[in-house]
Structures are given as structure tokens and as C-alpha cells.
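Reviewers asked in the last cycle whether our approach scales beyond single polypeptides. To address this, we selected a multi-component target totalling 559 residues and predicted its structure end to end. The input consisted of the following lines:
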Amino acid sequence: MQLNSLQANFKTALLSKDHTDFAARAIVRGEIPASARLRIHQNNVVITLTEALKAVYPTIQQFVGNNFFNALAGGFVRNHPPSRGALIAYGEDFPAFLNNFEPARRLPYLADIARLEWARHNAFHAADATPITGSIFADLGPEQIAGLRLRLSPSANLLVSPYPLIALWELAQVEDEPKDTVEIEPAPSHLLIHRPDLEVQILTLTEAAFIFLRSLSEGRNLTQSYEAAAEQDTGFDLQAALTDLMEADVFTAIETEQQ
Amino acid sequence: MASSLIQNGLTKNPIPVRAGIGLKAQHYTEILEDRPDIGWFEAHTENYMGAGGPPHRYLEAIAERYPLSFHGVGMSLGSADGLDLQHLKRKKELVEKYRPALVSEHLSWSSIGGTYLNDLLPLPYTQKTLEIIADHVRQAQDVLRRRILIENPSTYLQYEDSVIPETDFLMMLADLTGCGVLLDVNNVYVSAWNHRFDARSYIQALEGAPVAEMHLAGHHFNTDIIKDFPESRGLRIDDHGSPVIDDVWALYKEALSLFGAAPTLIEWDTNIPALSVLMNEGAKAEAVMEQYGRTRHAAE
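The resulting structure, written as C-alpha cells, was:
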């Protein structure tokens, strides 16, 4: 068998549940049949990738329990195996998979908790950047400030959800509490997940502040972003929002209009 | 040739002929606070393929204080459809940034058709496979601008198509590409058990190979399988999750007498214990090295 087709067949055998045909054709039979030998690798693939998912999604595991998580992860691994040899990028599709996983339907907020965990993972590994400080405004006139674009830290992830994600997330950290019977009142979350230094932080924002920040992150200037926020909340306080966000080390660069 | 590459300024801190320990996130702060007397650390390159954050912060601090080796698990040198150039590029950036004294990969494959299986899968040992993996080793060495070491695998199955003994395959690969050999003593033991060959003969068959590093690890002995297949004697599975067993220490002595003392890693990747447990294993390896590892001659 050509190496290419051997490896393609091996891959199919590992990701499917039936692999006896390939095993019989390609693998030497000893006292232990080829299919049992192949099963070692099949287990390696599913177990190690399940462990990788558990490391990124520990809260989902807390919520659904170990057995359910293993079933979930097994299904995900077989349908969405990694495409690259560095697992840091693996598992981005897991929240969407949760959304469509029939047995998880009765926990509709699960996918959003998973998005929160992915955002934390992303922020953890994001590029480092030095935050700017408020003094940067000192040399700028009012018109320059109005046209300013503020760049968010590479670790900044914005997440909106109809569910109270922080409360749910904290609930999951309490051990031995049955999670699947909890009644959840919809209460929207507007979150910024970022890493000012070594630790990932989660900031709960007002809806207007969230809109303001999202607008900035999409490259619009201060005035445009303020207007977007004020549309949601006419009382949106630009100065206070900016001060809070600067203190939280959210911004890493400014660009004036002329640039 | 190999030593000239290592000495041309690419390396920050040479690896001493001592025991090293696999670098784990659990031990970062203890290493930096206590500065334990450990010869060197080996990091899994893929764990540092993120852009920034704590992994890099800690690795930078540790690389300042200890010699470093990079051990790759995701390069898939044995893939029939070529190397992942983006992966290789990222690896090059890391090698240039951290300047590890040793860079190693596996005699195995993990990727095909854009799917990465996260397991070190065995290769059929044929002339054609040798040509393919030799091309990939050369390509990797050209891009990284340095020699790499290739590790013998733990295997659980053999292919009908294999015609070249694994030891010959490794020696030919080293001849063709100038790569070094990372002799994993536990892998030899595991494979020998699983395929009923003699582990000592395997080590002896590598005589003259450019062994530049050794690995020691624990493995899992699966005896449950005997229930299903009573004529078998079980399978040994390389899980790096327990102490090195006595038989592997005995084999290590054999390897030291043949190849001389070499930097030896204590690998422990699952059920990771306290750093002190790893240091005890390391001290044991150094004592054995002292006793059995003759001084390496200049040609090496």
C-alpha cells in the first residue's frame, strides 16, 4: 500500500468506530489481533484530545459531569479533529457543536458558557502588549480627541449573551451541586474578557459601554463610538467609561485621525 | 558537522551531560522561586505556539537560568503529504527566540489530508518511507538551520509492508540527513515487549548511531487485554505517567555502556507528580550515568 493511502485509511479507521477491514489488510496479526492494536491508537486520539478540551472547557465539564463530557468530547473529536499540530488552536468549534448536540438542548446556555471559556483561553495565549495610560491625551486638542481611534489589547474578547454567564460560571465552581435542574432566568451579559498582565480578567459592562467598546474594536473613532453607545443609552457617560476602561488597561495604542 | 552547527552561536546554553526534566506548567513557579539544581529542561514546542501570555513569560525566565531542549510532538515528519509549513515556520520563530541547545522530533506521523490526529503513529519501514521522511528531516533542518534529533517510537502494531528493521531505518535516516538520534530507552522496552523482540539486541543494533540524547519514562502495562486474548502477554502502553521500571533502568545501563553518557530526560506527562519526585528520578539517572557511562570519545 502506498504511504499516502495507508495513512488516509489509518485516519479513517481511527475516527470511525469500525476499523476491522483496514486493520486486517495492513497490520500484522499476532496473539493480539490487529483491530485490538489499532484500538490503542483510537483510544489515544480520543482520550488525549478529550483532555485538551477539558483543559479549555473545565466549566462545561463541571456542568455536565465527567461521563457526559466524555461522550460530548468523543463526538466532537470524531467530527471535528484538529487540523494543525499545535493544540492551542483546537476547540474553537466546540461551542457551536454544543448548540447542535441533541442531549445538551435542555441546557441552552451551555454554548455561551463555552464561548466564555474559549474567550478566556484566547486571552490567555494572546500576544502581550503594553497598555496606554490616560496621560496620552494630555498633548491632544479636543478635535484630535474626537477623531481618535483606540486600539484594544490583542487579548480583548467581547462576548454578549442572553444568559447570566458570570452567575452560571460561579455556580459551576461549587462542587457537588446538581447543575442540570437549575432554573435560569434570562438576564443578559455583556462581557469583556482580557489579560492586562498574567491573569485573565472578566469585566461586566453595561450594554452601552459594550456597544462603545465593540465599535472601537471595529475601528470606528471615539465620536462615532460614543454616538453608537448614546443611541442605546442617552445618559452614556463617555468620560467615565473611558476612565474605567483605561484603568482596566484595555487599550494598547491610539491613532489620531491624521495618521 | 553536527557539533559545528551547535557551536555557531545558535545555542544559548549547551546541555550538560546530566539528567534533565520535562518542563510542566505546574512547576513553573517552584523552579523560579527555588532554583533547584536541575541540569536542563525539555519543553514541548507546541505548548509555546501561542502568541504570548504566561507560557512565554515563564519559559523566558526559565531559559535565562537553565539550558533548554525543544521536543516537538506535532511536526509529523512521516506524513506522506508533506510538512505543515506554517507549523514549521512557527517552530523556527521559537527556535530563534529561545535558542534551545537540542531540538528533537519523532520517527512517526500524525497528520494526513489536513487532519492532525494528536498521536505518534507508526510508519511502515520501506525504502519509499525512508525517502519521504529523509526529505522532511532535511527540509526541517534547512528551515531551522540546525540539526535535529529523531526519537525511536513506542509501537503497538507493525505493518505487513514493513521490510526494514527499525534500527536500520533510523541509522539510514541519520546517514542520509545528518540528524542525530534521541534514544528513548523506555520506548525500546515497550516496543520489544509488544512485538516480542529482544530489547538489548535493538540497542546493540544501533551501535555507531549518533545518539545525542536519551529519554527515560514510565509506562502502563495493560494486562486486561489478556482476558480477551489469553495467548498474549499483555501490551505495554507508553503513557509517561509513572516511575521508570527496573527493567528499563537495566536497559539504560546497557545503552550507557554502548553509547557513553548522554543528556538524559526524565519524561513524565500524565499524573504529573511533585518536582521533587522528578528530581529523585533525575538523581538516580545521574548516578547510573556516573557508573556506567564511559566518557564519550572526541569523534562524537
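Chain A touches chain B through 48 residues (CB under 8 Å). We regard this as preliminary and will revisit it once experimental data from Aim 1 are available.
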